[in-house]
Amino acid sequence: MAPQSRLRRRSLAALTAVLAVLLAACAPAHPNSIFHSHTDFNREVDHLWTLLIGLGSVVFVFVETLLLITLIKFRKREGQPAPAQTHGNTRMEIAWTAIPALILAVIAVPTVRTIFRTEAPAAADALQVTVIGHQWWWEFQYPQYGITTANELYLPIGRTVNFTLKTADVIHSFWVPELGGKRDLVSNHTNYLWFTPDSVGDDVFNGFCAEYCGMSHANMRFKVFTVKPGEFADWAKHEAEPAAALDTAAKPAAPAGKPAMPAVQVAQAAPSTESFVSFPRKDIPAYAVPQTPLPAGLTFDRSLVGDPVAGAKLVQQPTTMCMACHAIKGNPMMQGVLGPNLTHVASRTTIAGGLYPNDKEHLELWIKNARVMKPGVLMYTLGAGEIDPATGKPTEMGKLTDQQIADIVAYLQTLK
Amino acid sequence: MATTAAAPPYVATREASNTGLWSWITTVDHKRIGALYLVTALIFFLIGGIEAEIIRLQLMQPNGTVVSAYTYNELFTMHGTTMIFLAVMPLSAAFFNFLVPLQIGARDVAFPRLNAFSYWVFLFGGLFINASWLLHAAPDGGWFGYAPLTTMQFNPGLNIDFWVLGIQILGVSSLAAAFNFITTIINMRAPGMQLMRMPMFTWMAFIVQFLLILAFPVITIALVFLQFDRFFGTQFYELAAGADPLLWQHLFWIFGHPEVYILILPAFGLVSEVLPTFSGKPLFGYPVMVYSGMLIAFLGFGVWAHHMFAVGMGPIADSVFGVTTLLIGIPTGVKIFNWIFTMWGGNVRFTVAAKFAIALIALFTIGGISGVMHASPPADLQQTDSYFVVAHFHYVLFGGSMMGIFAGIYYYYPKITGRLMSEKLGNWHFWLTFIGMNLTFFPMHFSGLAGMPRRIYRYDAGQGFTTYNEISSWGAYILAVATLFFVWNFVRSRKRGAVAGHNPWNAPSLEWSIPSPPPDYNYAVIPTVSSRYPLWDHKGAVVEFHEGEPIKTARELGIPMPFPTIKPLFTALFMTLMFTGLLFIHKNNWPMAYTFMFGGAAGMVASLYSWLLSPLE
Q: Which terminus of chain A has a smaller tally of CB atoms within 10 A, N or C?
């Protein structure tokens, strides 16, 4: 049967080529790999993985080799006598019942031990973080520090963090592959997940929603920054404070009549009252910077210079709709809870559930037509004359001019 | 009944026509219904395949823009729904229909008209779900349809309505067929065809019918809740009323996990027919193969929550479901070794059918190993809802079910049509499928471990996902080419394939003793069986057909045949129209809603009465 064995040789060559490609594919960096032992959780799972992959490989090689030997050895040849009509062999069948059972027992014991270890209650002194899933962004609360923020977590290195997981709507799943396993955010349930990021430095990790949650499931991402404990304390102190920039903007209200006053000056004024200036984080690695392409057809007059003072007034006008969903601590007019808390929005690196970088360009387009920027999003299309993709008609909400949007963005950028 | 052993002195009042469209839509012959299932399911398989190819086009590069988020969500939902409910299940049903009566030496199934009804319900249910594409309102809640995402609050469009009602309709088809086959297998075996002499495919079919009648009512309840929530304002999944979304998940997976075995056991059965024939040896460890099939089915009802390790069930439930899931590995492993040792010591002929069967052993093993990895809950928390799981279940369902079904198609095509499929085209199909399948799905293990979640329509570059996705997409394109070879072979061989004869493979079981294609009455003389491999052992009273012998008609032999009838088709059609009426409720078109619902119900009841009052034969 020469042609068949040639075929087999060819297919073996093809398989080798495939494996080579796959191995080559392992070369590029894997910034979200589950195999990085940054936390106690992942180290526990790593032990299981070593066992599972080890035993799995042995079984794989054994079965496939046995199969190949059988195929080669017992392929039909010319003039062969009819094979013996065996019907079975009890002893062999007992063997291949017992041996897999033994292998599975070897897996079961450490599995159950690890379940009880990883699902035990977290240490009492753990950092408590409440995670609330929303279609399609993440609300993070630090009840011990009075902080409410969105889409970006700061975690102190070496301290256990206990997540209390809830959802405001449908089921989501909280997943930072490099730090721990998933845990679902189930409606009308409270779940818990804890890990200790103890073998990390100043680093940033990508988080994902891992449970299909509707239209923009793919656009529901977040970041985790691990920072030194001292830095975390500074960050927490700062985040807990009311929006300082609003006061700064309110005080120079009179001189702000000069429209030429650049927003940058106001922005610089805010941190001067702060000791903590290391965020938003500089030098973010490329894998943590969103690269979402801008939707076609959405334009903005980039020559406009925003006036933060005008912007501060605009956000608290009911007609702009901002107050319907957003809160800014320290501003009694801004008490919305449906959208991300904006108190320190400028201290974040991303907007829109980790979908876009947090810069002037993206903020402007976002406010102008969020529904084009992110499919299905709750936030209204606010730009005057913009088509709302949900209705296919020009929006009835906000009707903001580009200048008004530029003003709002200038104000938001002061909210360090 | 049409199956009495000896032909009674009876003259059929009329001869059923065997040609023309009318003969197909009125047929109650299990073989022709099997052929209808086969062709219909293959068309749905192609549709599901096109959906998969668009998914792969979208994911081939970071931030793909081939389709929108909305369309992508429709595509993966419909890909899963189509492949499970409209391709693999009915492909198995095609073989149940065609083979079970032949393998047990019967003249038809117990309820031939109910059998026709099952097919028509399946067809209309499939068309119903797919009609949603015309409104660009295809289901977009995932094949698992998790509440509360599928409730009116979060998905007010028609998308989920089509899905809920479509799956309900398809459930009717599966249940009717399951009762039919159980009755057939229990009551209509030829003399001497003891249970432990039945061919392994019939055994697996028998087990699967029990899975169907135990699992489908559970999903039916879950769907009724959702349907009532959506149409009549009940609050089973209403969050504001304090609903627990885990209700849906438990109900769904109590159905959903046995469903996995509903999808794989028929393929195991087919492979257990193909391998002995092409090894020239009996199946190794027949009793153990039967018991392991039963054990898989039994354990399959005790593992559902391993789909839910991330929902926070607590350590005790996680441990229990982890360990029961590991247990399923044992009977499955036994099957793998028994197949290998069926070939061991034999003279293995590498026909295309044999190659697909061998590929099932090789590929299902990989899916089994990754399955064991999921069974360890802490490790599963890093795997679930990532591409690692996508890799796993495609090794099980494509590498397992589809490979087994392809083996079955190449093996039984000559029995169904009287002609062989081309081995040359079949080899192209096999090797391209084998290579394309591994290229598509093996890299998904890596993209999953690299942190890629499932069901995302786009991803950024630099995440470690891009290369794997590119390879997966190229693999998928190879699969598309492979499938073209298959389609061409399937269509071409119908008229131009080599004439097969009644037993082209020197196979041992009853169905190969009669002409290809079999006459409508199957067996001129009902065989008496005294061994598992009657055509090899030459024991028992089995009349083997001799090529060239004239084939008599049922009338000449005095065999009573059931009348062809269109009534099951009408019953199925009116039932589907009745369901369609509900769709108009959400369009606030009450006149249309009432017309369809009450008209459909009246039509269904009238057709059913007319059907039940007309004599069978």
A: N
Catalytic residue (choose from B30, B32, B56, B79) = B79
Measured CA to CA, the distance from residue A353 to residue A346 in angstroms comes to 14
DSSP 8-state secondary structure symbol assigned to residue B615: -
Whole-number Cα distances in Å, A398 to A21, A332, A333, A365, B401? 53, 21, 17, 14, 55
Nearest-5° angle of CA B151, CA B154, CA B156?
75
Instruction: Say whether pLDDT at A69 is over 70.
Output: yes
Q: How far apart are CA A415 and CA A280, in angstroms?
A: 11
Instruction: Domain ranges for chain A, please list them.
Output: 33-68+92-120, 127-240, 244-412
Residue A93 contacts B where some CB pair is shorter than 8 Å: yes
Chain A neighbors of B380, CB-CB under 8 A: 181
CB < 8 Å from A in window 386-445 of B: 386, 427, 431, 434-435, 438-439, 442-443
CATH code at A127-240: 2.60.40.420
Residues B547-561 have pLDDT tens digits of 888 888 888 888 888
B462 touches chain A (CB under 8 A): yes
The partner residue sitting opposite A186, judged by closest CB among B246, B366, B449, is: B246
| A252-277 burial code (b ≥16 CB/10 A, e <16) | beeebeeeebebeebbebbbeeeebe
Give me the helix-helix angle, B423-449 and B387-396, nearest 10°. Answer: 150
Q: Which strand (E) or helix (H) includes residue A365?
A: helix A360-368
CB A408 within 8 Å of CB A370:
no
Q: What pLDDT is attached to residue B93? A: 96
Pairwise CA distance, residues B509 & B77, whole Å = 40
Contact A74, B348 (CB under 8 A): yes
Cβ within 8 Å, pair B155-A214 = yes
* A119, A122, A123, A124: CA torsion to nearest 10: -140
Architecture of A244-412 per CATH? Orthogonal Bundle (1.10)
The tokens 């494996």 sit on which residue? A19
Domain residue ranges in chain B: 21-565, 566-617
What's the burial of B522, exposed, middle or buried (CB within 10 Å: 0-12/13-18/19+)? buried
Fold of B21-565: Cytochrome C Oxidase; Chain A (1.20.210)
| Shortest Cα distance, chain A CAs vs residue B334, angstroms | 6
CB A375 within 8 A of CB A216: yes
Catalytic residue among B174, B277, B342, B401: B174
Task: List, for residues B65-80, the tens digit of each pLDDT value.
Answer: 999 999 999 999 999 9
Q: Tell me which of B82, B92, B132, B272 is the catalytic residue.
A: B272
Edge to edge, the sheet with strand A191-195 lists A147-150, A137-142, A127-134, A161-167, A191-195
Partner residue opposite A119 with nearest CB, options B318, B334, B358: B318
* pLDDT at residue B542, rounded to an integer: 82
Do A115 and B378 lie within an 8 Å CB cutoff? Answer: yes
Confirm if B86 and B44 have CB atoms less than 8 A apart.
yes
| Residue in the block written with tokens 């799995």 | A56
Q: Are B318 and A183 spatial neighbours (Cβ–Cβ below 8 Å)?
A: no
Token readout for B158 is 């028609």
Cβ distance of B330 and A100 shorter than 8 Å: yes
Task: Give the pLDDT band of residue B166 (cuts 50, 70, 90).
Answer: very high
How many Å lie between the alpha carbon of B379 and the closest alpha carbon of chain A?
Answer: 5
